[in-house]
Design a protein that fits this description.
It is a single chain. The chain is mainly alpha-helical and 96 residues long. It has four helices and no strands. Helix 1 (4-21) runs antiparallel to helix 2 (26-54). The longest helix has 29 residues, at 26-54. The radius of gyration is 17 Å and the shape is elongated. The chain starts with a helix and ends in a 9-residue tail after the last helix. The model has no long low-confidence stretch (mean pLDDT 88).
């Protein structure tokens, strides 16, 4: 997904919010941080693993089928399908 740098920035923003919310309780802040970040980070990690195969296939029937699917915009990684990725606000603690 090419999201390594973006995820690091989101991590920092989320961690900041968690530490501000639990300024005197670092373990609680870290528990909230994990609760906030784990689902999103895991989802992106899974999508990246899938893309490793999807975007690096040799020319042939599977590649042509993938290209046709992309042209139709009917994929799980079309702009509409990944809008959640770019609409995320890492500073909204407890909302995600």
């Amino acid at each position: 997904m090419g999201q390594g740098g973006a995820q690091a920035i989101e991590d920092g923003a989320t961690l900041k919010g968690c530490l501000l919310k639990f300024s005197n309780d670092v373990p609680a802040a870290l528990q909230l941080y994990e609760k906030q970040r784990l689902p999103r980070a895991s989802r992106l990690q899974g999508m990246s693993a899938t893309n490793k195969t999807r975007f690096h296939m040799p020319d042939g029937p599977a590649q042509r089928e993938r290209d046709a699917e992309m042209a139709r915009g009917a994929t799980d990684w079309s702009p509409a399908a990944i809008a959640w990725l770019f609409a995320h606000d890492a500073e909204l603690i407890g909302v995600q």
